[in-house]
Design goal:
By secondary structure, the chain is mainly beta. The protein has 2 helices and 11 strands, in the order αββαβββββββββ. Strand 6 and strand 7 form a beta hairpin.
Amino acid sequence: MKKYLFFATLLAFSSFAGATTLENFYLGGAVGSTDFDGDGEYTSNSFLNSLFKYKAKEDGPTYKLIAGYQINDIVGIEAQYTSYGDVKIESQRFSFAKKQTLEHSSIVVAANIGYTFSNGIRPFGTLGLGSIKVEDNSGSDNGTAFRGGLGLEYAPSSLGGLNLRLAYEIDMFATESGTGTNKKEYSQSIGSFYVGTTYKF
């Protein structure tokens, strides 16, 4: 995790290196739910999975670290490190069946596009690209993540640079399972409905 945090910080600061002051630069964090779709890889891709009736269950909150730069009134760019809650794969029929725990984390750089109304409310959308790491009982793998999201921010002038955020964001990625002619690709996603806060300098 320390390595991922380092690269997240590096990406954030390199993205905003053109800014000569901290003005319009923002930092923050968030916490939320975990929402996973494995496209059947862990629950229905084999006879045994169907027989044992495996099910994916999200277990634990998602945490986010956010660093961004507001380019103008509409467009910003931000880097996020996201540590998702564990996903547990367990049989619904047999307690003795093998269990598996999946851990996901991602680093994404995204455009944040929105409009701020006079009352401080700003609806926005995010669209970005990054890297996702998936760890399970047998090891870990890295892949490309495509990020999308929608949300609302609230930043009244009375709060200074403080910004409150409510949003849903999702990382979409592909995995492969099997070998040879039995190899299959799965389109998976993991997302979070979260609340957070940022401070703009």
